[in-house]
């Protein structure tokens, strides 16, 4: 049977890196087995629906190269791929469960539910649930006479449909990462399956859709483990047990100190992004920074995420998407949470920048330079510059500092690093150098270097003592590749102007 997996986010906001990792592992597994990867939008909770979130999710997956085979934006045999558009599909299954005695109508008002939580609260049971302990004291089709239930339904009294969990059953299933998992049914509450607005809850919709869409493997976060017994029972009660997907509950991504799940607040607090791309909260206007805008290459982001919870078993750490697909195996997904390490994330990016071709980097670097208002000229020049400085860039934004001076004079010069060792002899050297430059046959790196060194020898000053001031005059600070290469690329006129500007300040 061909592998079919799904990524099933709710469009409630930006995509946290944990969500992207779930999509990634699902995608890697699917592609390794030549299957189909489905994007399904779980938008049954209208109160939490956020405008723009679905498009954001699609854009994120696109940016990462995690390409769905089917989804709301693509044609497919199992359309529609938005649960809100499948609303009519779910109710018959909820009614079937009621019919079979595995679910029941509940008419309790919010006030009655609140009263239940207060009345049944005890030291042994500090937060009472709607379950086998309480259900027979509530207003539902188990406690009402059939005629009364009929009357309430006929009068269109608002109701929900709840699953009836057994009191004493051990519910067992196999998880691809954790092996056998058992839960006592008595500890699980009678979850709502169909809401008063006729929409299914996640619990019913996920089972119905995984079945109808012929999903074979369901990857999701560890936070869904407590709901698994409900889902297992639904697969069983609906008579689909043999078609149930294999479950994989992925371990959490933890805060850098290992204490608890990495939250979007941690990003703000610790100064790193936790979303794949920038996300602006429409209500608060708050902007959450994304890895993309922070200057990450998608290859690096994906590589880093893959290693956050999985290990290839080899020394090698750099994997392209194709390499990840062929190396990925569920046996090597860790059972325990993985600590997020921003320094390591940056290391991946630095390595990917170093290993990427200039052609590949060009459009992305250009965007960052243009955003910083650097007048980027033709692509050939930029390509040469990228080749020269890419080893020095960890984030794409570093190209602004590392390449800006090729296009415009530095905004300021680090004179403090020149001044302590500055002398009249050095000033004379640079003034003579500018005269020499006028007569050079060309302004190539080698010619510049030879003339610089010859003059230093004539004036009896060590070349090493002159190169640092020269660099600062050209780029503004103590950074950049070989200074003679820089001189060639910025050209004679700009070199003369910058040297002149600094000499005038010393
Ligand atoms: N809609 C759920 C979420 O947003 C998906 C859980 C699942 O994949 O089953 O987390």
Quick summary:
The protein has about 500 residues and is mainly alpha-helical. The chain is about 45% helix and about 10% strand.
Polypeptide structure, described:
The protein is mainly alpha-helical. The chain contains 20 helices and 13 strands. The structure holds glutamic acid (GLU). The site of glutamic acid has 8 residues, from helix 6. Glutamic acid (GLU) is lined by residues 8-10, 42, 202, 206, 220, 224.
List the helices and strands and how they pair.
Layout: E1 4-7, H1 17-32, E2 36-39, H2 53-64, H3 87-99, E3 103-106, H4 110-119, H5 146-154, E4 160-163, E5 170-175, E6 179-184, E7 192-194, H6 202-212, E8 217-221, H7 228-237, E9 246-250, E10 253-254, H8 264-270, E11 279-280, E12 287-288, H9 291-294, H10 298-307, H11 321-327, E13 338-339, H12 342-355, H13 358-371, H14 379-389, H15 398-407, H16 424-438, H17 445-459, H18 463-475, H19 483-490, H20 492-503
Parallel strand pairs: 1-2, 8-9, 10-13
Antiparallel strand pairs: 3-4, 4-7, 5-6, 11-12
Helix pairs in contact: 1-11, 6-7, 10-12, 13-14, 16-17, 16-20, 17-19
Bound molecules: glutamic acid.
Glutamic acid is lined by residues 8-10, 42, 202, 206, 220, 224.
Name its key features.
single chain, 506 residues, mainly alpha, Glutamyl-tRNA Synthetase, domain 3, Arc Repressor Mutant, subunit A, 3-stranded antiparallel sheet, two-stranded parallel sheet, 13 strands
Structural class: mainly alpha
**Amino-to-carboxy terminus distance:** 76 Å
Q: Sketch the major β-sheet.
A: 3 strands, antiparallel
The whole-number mean of residue pLDDT values reads 96
Tell me the fraction of residues in β-strands, as a range.
Answer: 5-15%
Helix count, DSSP H or I runs of 4 or more residues: 20
